[in-house]
Amino acid sequence: MGNFQEASDLESNVSISARRFEESPFIERTDCPGMVRGVYAGRYFPISLGEDHIEKYWRLRQKALVFDTPEKPIEISGPDAVPFLDHVLARRVASMTEGRGYYAIACTPQGGVFMDGVIFRLEENRFWYVQADGPFETWLMAHSGDYDVTISDPNSRVLQIQGPTSLEIMKAASDGAVNETLKYFRSGYFDIGGQQFYVSRTGFTNELGYEIYCNGAKTDHLALWDHLMTCGAPHGLEFSSCRAMTLRRIEGGILGNLTDMTPDMTPFEAGLAPFIDMDKGDFIGRDALVGKDTRSCLFGITCKTETPASGAVVLNGGVAVGFVTAGIPSPTLGLGVGYVRFDAPGDWVGRSLKMRLPDGSTHDTQIVDVPFFDREKAIVRGVDRSIPERPTIGTQA
């Protein structure tokens, strides 16, 4: 089941028991009458606040936003933590240094994508895997029988501060401890407002940004929130729902688990071959991946006349050859963009194809590589610190 966050989803809601899923510890600061929430990794998160999400998008690109995100860290510790993680994940874990983060995928025994996330090495035999949507803690427990490991939930809620002024905000919030020396996908413990937090130079926007990992009941969450907002105010920090994040993550080529990639596709088909270490030894799903076509089936799609929508059919000469997994209006590019999953690999990039939307209308599209801009990832790595100008005429939702 996909975790869709398209505009139409805001009008398709049901009531659900508030005790069924984890409440945010920041809800006292973020709740508002217009909030629409979703569930991700068993946690509530704000999909919309009724805000102008295009304005929030430009705040993200020109200043900074703080997001109360539902991503869920799982702790794996013990004498066999390294061999266990090397068995469960398709990425080589043994060579990680402390404070390093890796994007890592867990495959099914059939070679499909089960989970993606970021693994951090906190200590020699202690790791956090920050999972996407799905029952990963149960999966880890099911495969841990032959290993001396402890799998636990640190009850860490994650705040993301993203945008070009995020570095200045984090400097102010940490009395200068978080600075330029903390590089992309690096992490460590820092004092923020008198509390200790694990902080990483990562995020879900492909903008310069940071993630702050809380410590369950040990954290005074509201004091943290107030401290960050006070430190961030001079640098333009605002709170946002995840609508602006969704726009930017698709522009940035970031995939959503269970939405853009599913267990019935291999990581190769998802375009993630660089993150699969086939030469590291055995891991779950490796045997099934041996000999598989390593070409991608997932690409970008652009449309000048309409926004790609999940489920839209992509046609080549009137024949269905793929479908759209997710789409958004790109405020920066001024057109609709999204991901298209083809039925088979091929020379799709550069092709002009048709897209039939769920309403039956047909539109011309172009197939492109992702990300849709900043292919060198100079923004997220902090190399490009320029502030983008807002187009006078752009795509609106």
- Poorly predicted ranges (pLDDT <50, ≥5 residues)? none
Strand content: 25-35%
Helix and strand string, N-terminal first?
HEEHEEHEEEHEEHEEEHEHHEEEEEE
Per DSSP, the total helix count is: 8
In round numbers, the mean pLDDT is: 95
Instruction: Kindly provide the name of the CATH class of the largest domain.
Output: Alpha Beta
Q: From the 3D structure, determine the CATH topology of the largest domain.
A: Gyrase A, domain 2
Largest sheet: 6 strands, mixed
Q: What is the alpha-carbon Rg in Å?
A: 21 Å
Helix content: 10-25%
Structural class: alpha+beta
Strand ordering within the main sheet: 10-11-12-9-3-13
Per CATH, which architecture of the largest domain?
A: 2-Layer Sandwich
CATH superfamily of the largest domain: Probable tRNA modification gtpase trme, domain 1
What's the total count of β strands? 19
The total tally of domains equals 2
Overall, the morphology is: globular
Distance between the termini: 24 Å
